[in-house]
Amino acid sequence: MARASSEVPVAVIGGGVVGVAVAHALAGRGVGALVLEAEHELARGASGTNSGILHTGFDSNMGELETTLILRSGELRDGMLANAGVPVLRCGATLTPRSEEEARNVAAVAASARAIGIQVTLRDDGVLEVPGEAVTDPVAYTHALARTALAGGAEIRTGARVKAIRRDGDGLALGLDAGDEVRCRVAVNCAGLHADDVARLAGDESFAIFPRKGEFFVFDPPGGRPLERILLPVPTKRTKGVLIFPTTDGMIVAGPTAYDQDDKRDWAVREQAREEILPRAVAMLPALEGAEPVASYAGLRPAGRHGANYVIRVSGACPRLVNVAAIRSTGLSASLGIAEYVVALAAGAGVALGSERSLPAAPVSPIDAPWWQRAAERA
Hints:
Blueprint: E1 5-13, H1 17-27, E2 33-37, E3 53-54, H2 65-81, E4 88-89, E5 93-95, H3 100-115, E6 121-122, E7 128-130, E8 134-136, H4 138-151, E9 155-158, E10 162-168, E11 171-176, E12 181-189, H5 195-201, E13 209-219, E14 230-232, E15 243-246, E16 252-255, E17 259-260, H6 273-284, E18 295-304, E19 311-314, E20 321-325, H7 331-348, H8 371-378
Parallel strand pairs: 1-2, 1-12, 2-9, 5-14, 12-20
Antiparallel strand pairs: 3-8, 4-8, 5-7, 6-7, 10-11, 11-12, 13-16, 13-17, 13-18, 15-16, 19-20
Helix pairs in contact: 1-4, 1-7, 2-7
């Protein structure tokens, strides 16, 4: 039997929030991208198992690519959300120091936030208020981007795992598990945990990804009182620590951990996670004392080995491949900025862009269950 073949300007490998954001941004420049997602639905990886926090970048480092793209995403987000039908809880956040050393660190964070243009208030008691922090349903957010991209001419295939990449004239040919082939001018590798595996298919061994497990516990609001804001700990260089945040459907979530592992398919919540999270959560929100979680889940963040972070570049081994890798916990927040950045790289790699255009509003399709419930069912 002859192998089925299709041809598109851009193939986006990975249907998480970054992959569909890239398709969305390409549609806005008149380029019809094809998203190839290995799972049978979108946002099954890190995109659907995180905190859902839309981060302002207030604690990010000036001059880093990650910071630049978070800030740019914040500028683009309101326009995207205007007709998207995505739930967003604009609750703000507070960061409370618990020692003199932490108070000094919080003051430094406040100064850094102001330097990059983020509105914050440092109170007399040392508490930092960040009014721009918000929470969404990350699965609904991903699907909203996908709907708009589809309305703008993109295509999405699920159950489409890329197993081979070869050069094909002035483009690439991607071999899929099902035996068919996709030919494209440029491929964009947004495969999350498996971005290094995809890059190796094209002969690129310039980076490696490992899973950093973040575990969360979900609670009913104590006394039926919803949490009014995100409660943040003082961050360290390695992790933002255990935080507590409300969900868009009224629950309270505490987490995450930051457990480095090698197995990219181990989504189980470890027994130790309770002791790593619950005492810290109670210290921040005493009303959780004695409360039993109603659910738990784990997310696997695609961390880069040797400190690599935000590896977004044209492959040195394959100039028709754009890698978008090691996008850790801020991928949801930075997705729109990442997508805009990637579109420019794709243009440099040979994709012809049209003029910027507004995409048609797409009908809203409600998600069957809140993201945390879907994530808990996977754990």
